[in-house]
């Protein structure tokens, strides 16, 4: 019996992935960029093991304590590719144990709510692929592994790296150049912080895959976004990261969130992921930025109503000063309880009815930029 | 003393006007199409008079019982142009009384809430321009008058006609070819009905003029909408009206509403006019259409959360069957109180939590397609 345990992070895109040009290979219609979030606060832990003992009769996945199917084409493609690499190694080197033929057991837990728009599938597939690759001792770098994880869940490919990560869409039909690369590691710009405002922990109304293909097939504005808006924005965002220009990075992040939700709304029938609570959060951030005469914070929304607010550590007193005013009573402030926040100077608090603006958010997660998948000593047992 | 009284209708665009290429002349970035609504339910009544008596010392406007300013550039341009035409007539024909020099008194009332996204300024400027033109006996057709009303409020130009109306954007710099024309009169397709769901009667958060210029200046998708999406849609919508093809007319109307709100959302900072109540109405209409296997109703949203639902009279039992289920307890059903509505066959009522879906709408206005401005015997007195 062989076993390895790993952890993998969540990533939240600042330049959004929305639309597949090939939905079997999970090839996107545009390149995207994300920030990997700290595993101190959000992570998937996965123990993968394989054995030829009787208790390992078939491949099994236990997710958050429940036996889940591995029958989906997506899971099968990940497992199949990893096994193929291993069996090729075994064929070349007769001294290697032939574990590629053994059943796998994957035990995985998230320390955050699943499928609530918090990119749990990204962390989950990244952990599974990274874990099996370590178990099999595959000589593949993270970019190679990202191509396998991509076939499980598109955005999972970006969770193979820490820091700032790009998913290069590639141009080949077989997808071999559609992979994640690191734009900059955590050490390049360690002061990037993220505050997640959890608006709803219920399951998504419109799942991402169905939603994005509805947009691809019906939005009149979508193709223009993909061909004309995203490519120059990608380069600008990459530069803003390299130059640590938060003002620009924030503007591009907010603009791209808006653009993504705009093409969702332009779908037929329209898709709405942001709700009235999301919009109130947009207004809070806009007014904070206006009051300071610069972008101290950037909102971004994925395929759900939750907000992720990026900011720099040096401005934490400003951003958390506002968030604490409205959401300070909610779970998630433990690490900051001792700090006495106050509203930033010039913040136009009179514009906001506090009763209304405090509504709809259920918890807060205060985190920051973080590292990619890594091995861990923690071993998860079958439930 | 000379006096004329007129009434003018509201119009609700099915192909939206959003964006000015010249904000002094109110020249739009795209042509638009609207349905004129029946004055039985929504109208502005305006009495215009002029006199050289002492009580008429300056031009005055009384709107809904309150003295309002006529100082705005927009009002001044309308009054100035009408006076210029009159004074040219007077110069040519010495027998005409020189009333162009006399102060004007304009007394105007709406029978619906002002500035709640119900196009009150369109009806108001149309009534004022049409009324003064009648007072002055100007030999100008409605299309000529539409160019004057356009300078007061862009969409007012479409309220000069009944039925289905296009505002041709024109190409001339001086705006002399930017005017309303009638696509078809009421008699062509009299069975078009409209149900207005009034979501909020408060003033708009983002006024249209500021909102549209923010979109023009900041949305990456806007120019594509204007240049590539609207022109073919305009032709298709015009054809759908001429052919009385409701299926197509409804699809184009919903798509264009989505597209307009998408470019609002794509603005920086984003503009949101639809709220969670608006989105629930979209879902009701989508599910109604799906359940019937055809478009029996089309939603459209202007620069506010109110919904306008267009449908054909022959499908009234289906559309009002659904609306009555959720909004039957609200004001606005008087004319239909005697009818026993029931939910349409196959409508998936289980998808809707009635408590939630009934929220947020304050009243209903059941109306239909109607005629353009006309003279009336009703005389409004100065309050």
UniProtKB/TrEMBL annotation, chains A, B:
Keyword Ion transport found: no
InterPro entries found in the cross-reference section: GHMP_kinase_C_sf (IPR036554), Mev_decarb (IPR005935), Mev_diP_decarb (IPR029765), MVD-like_N (IPR053859), Mvd1_C (IPR041431), Ribosomal_Su5_D2-typ_SF (IPR020568), Ribsml_uS5_D2-typ_fold_subgr (IPR014721)
Organism: Eeniella nana (Yeast)
Coiled coil: none
Domain Mvd1 C-terminal: 195-374
UniProt GO cellular component terms: cytosol
Enzyme Commission number: 4.1.1.33
Catalytic activity: (R)-5-diphosphomevalonate + ATP = isopentenyl diphosphate + ADP + phosphate + CO2
UniProt name for this protein: Diphosphomevalonate decarboxylase
GO molecular function: ATP binding; diphosphomevalonate decarboxylase activity
Family listed: Belongs to the diphosphomevalonate decarboxylase family.
Keywords per UniProt: ATP-binding, Lipid biosynthesis, Lipid metabolism, Lyase, Nucleotide-binding, Steroid biosynthesis, Steroid metabolism, Sterol biosynthesis, Sterol metabolism
Domain of life: Eukaryota
Pathway: Isoprenoid biosynthesis; isopentenyl diphosphate biosynthesis via mevalonate pathway; isopentenyl diphosphate from (R)-mevalonate: step 3/3
GO biological process, one term: sterol biosynthetic process
Domain Diphosphomevalonate decarboxylase-like N-terminal as annotated: residue spans: 8-180
Classification via PANTHER family: DIPHOSPHOMEVALONATE DECARBOXYLASE (PTHR10977)
């Amino acid at each position: 019996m062989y076993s390895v345990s790993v952890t993998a992070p969540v990533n939240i895109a600042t330049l959004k992935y929305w639309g597949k040009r090939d939905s079997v290979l999970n090839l996107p219609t545009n390149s995207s960029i994300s920030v990997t979030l700290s595993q101190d606060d959000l992570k998937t832990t996965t123990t993968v093991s394989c054995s030829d003992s009787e208790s390992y009769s078939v491949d099994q996945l236990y997710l958050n304590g429940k036996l889940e199917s591995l029958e989906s084409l997506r899971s099968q493609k990940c497992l199949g590719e990893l096994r193929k690499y291993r069996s090729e190694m075994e064929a070349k080197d007769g001294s290697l144990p032939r574990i590629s033929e053994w059943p796998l057991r994957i035990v995985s837990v998230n320390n955050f709510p699943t499928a609530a728009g918090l990119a749990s599938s990204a962390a989950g597939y990244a952990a599974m692929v990274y874990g099996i690759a370590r178990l099999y001792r595959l000589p593949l770098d993270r970019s190679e592994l990202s191509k396998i994880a991509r076939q499980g869940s598109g955005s999972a490919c970006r969770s193979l790296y820490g820091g700032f990560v790009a998913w290069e869409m590639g141009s080949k039909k077989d997808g071999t150049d559609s992979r994640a690369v690191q734009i900059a590691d955590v050490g390049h710009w360690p002061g990037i912080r993220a505050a997640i405002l959890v608006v709803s922990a219920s399951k998504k109304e419109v799942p991402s895959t169905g939603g994005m293909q509805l947009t691809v097939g019906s939005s009149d504005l979508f193709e223009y976004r993909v061909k004309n808006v995203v490519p120059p924005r990608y380069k600008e965002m990459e530069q803003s990261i390299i130059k640590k220009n938060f003002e620009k990075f924030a503007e591009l992040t907010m603009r791209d969130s808006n653009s993504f939700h705009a093409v969702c709304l332009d779908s037929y029938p329209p898709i709405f992921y942001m709700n009235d609570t999301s919009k109130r959060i947009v207004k809070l951030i806009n007014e904070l930025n206006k009051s300071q005469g610069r972008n101290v914070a950037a909102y971004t929304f994925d395929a759900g109503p939750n907000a992720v607010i990026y900011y720099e550590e040096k401005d934490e007193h400003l951003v958390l000063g506002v968030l604490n005013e409205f959401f300070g009573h909610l779970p998630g402030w433990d690490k900051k309880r001792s700090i006495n926040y106050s509203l930033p100077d010039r913040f136009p608090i009179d514009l906001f009815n506090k009763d209304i603006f405090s509504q709809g958010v259920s918890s807060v997660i205060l985190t920051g930029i973080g590292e990619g998948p890594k091995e861990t000593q923690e071993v998860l047992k079958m439930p």
